[in-house]
Amino acid sequence: MSTPSTVGPLHTRSMGTAGPRVAFLHGLFGQGRNWNQIAKSVSGPEQADARCLLVDLPDHGRSPRSEQFSYQGYAAAVAATLADAAPGEQWTVVGHSLGGKVAMLVALLHPELVERLVVVDIAPKDYGTLARFEGYINEMLRLPLDEIESRGDAEERFQESDPGVKAFLLQNLRREGEGWRWQANLDLIAADAAQGSSSRIAGWPTMADEVAPFDGPVLWIAGGESRYVKDEDSDVMRSLFPRVRQLTVKGASHWVHTDAPDVVVAALRRFIGAD
């Protein structure tokens, strides 16, 4: 079992003035603000249908960095953040990809905080390696931060053909004084990716299979064009989350909430009782 990393309070952004509490967790190289439009729509036109909290996970955005990656550590940091934000209250926790795994751990290890769970395009399993991210990681490492003159300069130098992916990764680039730095803990992520099949980020903590199943309602949203969730994942998902209901969004990739925001918003609002 990995030793949980200890980090300080996580950076959050809130919206909404009334209704159930909903926390949003992003994926690898993401930030809480990636959920901004979804959360705004879930909160409703008057921002009174839900109280949403957008969380920067450890090693991402404006949250503290950890010395080593640990799903238990990430879950503990999120749990502490939720408990501090609304003492004694329960949350619907929504997580995509990396954030989906963290959300599952929060529900399993801290069930007193979680009323409902939404897992977006990820399964509770070991994905083997971070090979699918190695090209992005290498390109980020290749960018000569000490030579960058402007964000436009960084965009020109950054070799990524997909404009959406480029914009997503470069959101991590921040000016610091006269220079630039990566907000995401790139060194930690790169070191984890270099572990190959021993990657902790790609993995799934075995201790999760030793705790009691989460007995609250669970919505499992998958992209119809994504390869992250497969038919054979249903058995293990149901063993940990017996009340799971799956929604597969046709035509959507791994980035379901970006490809089909209206579908995701409608599903979330129904799930939390905002409609």
Keywords:
2 domains, AB_hydrolase_1, 275 residues, seven-stranded mixed sheet, hydrolase, AB_hydrolase_fold, disordered N terminus, alpha/beta, 9 strands
Notes on the structure:
This protein is of the alpha/beta class and 275 residues long. The chain has 2 domains: 12-125 and 204-270, Alpha/Beta hydrolase fold, catalytic domain (Rossmann fold, 3-Layer(aba) Sandwich); 131-193, no CATH class. 34% of the residues lie in helices and 17% in strands. It contains 10 helices and 9 strands. The protein has helices at residues 36-43, 71-85, 98-109, 131-142, 151-157, 163-170, 186-193, 234-240, 256-259, 261-272; strands at 12-15, 21-25, 51-55, 91-96, 114-120, 173-176, 179-182, 218-223, 244-249. The strands form 2 sheets. A 7-stranded mixed sheet has the order 1-3-2-4-5-8-9, with helices on both faces. The chain has a two-stranded antiparallel ribbon with strand order 6-7. Helix 8 links the parallel strand 8 and strand 9 (244-249). Helix 1 crosses helix 10 and helix 4 crosses helix 7. It is globular. It comes from Intrasporangium chromatireducens Q5-1. Pfam families: Abhydrolase_1. This is Esterase. Residues 20-260 form the AB hydrolase-1 domain.
Topology:
Layout lengths: L11 E4 L5 E5 L10 H8 L7 E5 L15 H15 L5 E6 L1 H12 L4 E7 L10 H12 L8 H7 L5 H8 L2 E4 L2 E4 L3 H8 L24 E6 L10 H7 L3 E6 L6 H4 L1 H12 L3
Parallel strand pairs: 2-3, 2-4, 4-5, 5-8, 8-9
Antiparallel strand pairs: 1-3, 6-7
Helix pairs in contact: 1-10, 2-3, 4-7
